[in-house]
Automatic annotation (TrEMBL):
Family: Belongs to the universal ribosomal protein uL4 family.
One protein family per Pfam: Ribosomal_L4
Record's protein name: Large ribosomal subunit protein uL4
PANTHER family: 50S RIBOSOMAL PROTEIN L4 (PTHR10746), LARGE RIBOSOMAL SUBUNIT PROTEIN UL4M (PTHR10746:SF6)
Subunit structure comment from the entry: Part of the 50S ribosomal subunit.
Annotated spans, Disordered: 46-77
Length: 209
C-alpha cells in the first residue's frame, strides 16, 4: 500500500512510500491489543503504596483502661485500628504490578494498532525535517500545516532528534518518540499518527522479525 509523502507545510512532495501490508494492513487482533495496553498501563504503577498496620505504629503498649466496669467495649492498646492514630486493618502493601507478555503477542498488537490507524486514515508520512534550535513555535507551525494542531498527535522519528523532542515538550497534545519506543498504547492514544519517512523502515524492520 502506497502513501503520499508530505512536507512540513502539509503539501504533497510528489513522492510515495510503500507501507508493508504485513505491518500496516493486517486484520487487527483486538485481544492482542487489549493484552498489550493492559500490560503497559500496569507497568505505569509504581506499587509503592503502603500504610502502617497495628504492629508498625509507634505508641504505648499499656492497657488504656480497665477491662470491666466502664460500660464500654474492652480496649487493650492505643494502637488498635478502632482508635484515631491506630494501625490500618489490611492496609495496602508494596506490590509488583509487572506482567509478562509474549513477544509475538506484543508485535501483533503493535501491527494491529498501526493497521487501525491506517484504516482510519489517521496516519501521515512526512519527509524528514529538523530545526536549527529547539523552538516550540516552529513545531506548532508544523502541526498547524499538517492540520493536526488541535488533535492529540504522535510523531515517530527514525533516529533521536533532540531539537524536535525539545520543541514538542511544551505542547500537551503532542508527543515525539523514536520508532524503537513505539507502543500499542501510544499509537491508540493519539488521534493522528505522523511517521517521518526515515521511521517507516525502522518500524517495519522491528515488527517483521
Amino acid at each position: 500500500m502506497k502513501v503520499a509523502v508530505l512536507d512540513i507545510k502539509g503539501k504533497d512532495t510528489g513522492r510515495k512510500v510503500e507501507l508493508s501490508k504485513d505491518v500496516f494492513g493486517i486484520e487487527p487482533n483486538e485481544h492482542a491489543i487489549y493484552l498489550d495496553v493492559k500490560q503497559y498501563l500496569a507497568h505505569q504503577r509504581q506499587g509503592t503504596h503502603k500504610s502502617k498496620e497495628r504492629a508498625e505504629i509507634a505508641g504505648s503498649t499499656r492497657k488504656i483502661k480497665k477491662q470491666k466496669g466502664t460500660g464500654t467495649a474492652r480496649a487493650g492498646s492505643i494502637k488498635s485500628p478502632v482508635f484515631r492514630g491506630g494501625g490500618r486493618i489490611f492496609g495496602p502493601r508494596p506490590k509488583d504490578y509487572t506482567q509478562k507478555l509474549n513477544k509475538n503477542v506484543k508485535r501483533l498488537a503493535r501491527k494491529s494498532a498501526l493497521s487501525l490507524k491506517s484504516k482510519d486514515k489517521a496516519l501521515l508520512v512526512v519527509e524528514d525535517f529538523n530545526f536549527e534550535a529547539p523552538k516550540t513555535k516552529d513545531f506548532a507551525n508544523v502541526l498547524k500545516s499538517l492540520g493536526i494542531e488541535n488533535k492529540k498527535s504522535l510523531i515517530v522519528l527514525g533516529d533521536s532528534n533532540n531539537n524536535l523532542y525539545l520543541s514538542s515538550r511544551n505542547l500537551r497534545g503532542s508527543e515525539v518518540v523514536k520508532n524503537s519506543e513505539l507502543s500499542t498504547y501510544k499509537i491508540l492514544n493519539a488521534k493522528s499518527l505522523v511517521l517521518l519517512e526515515s521511521a517507516v523502515e525502522g518500524i517495519e524492520s522491528n515488527l517483521s522479525k
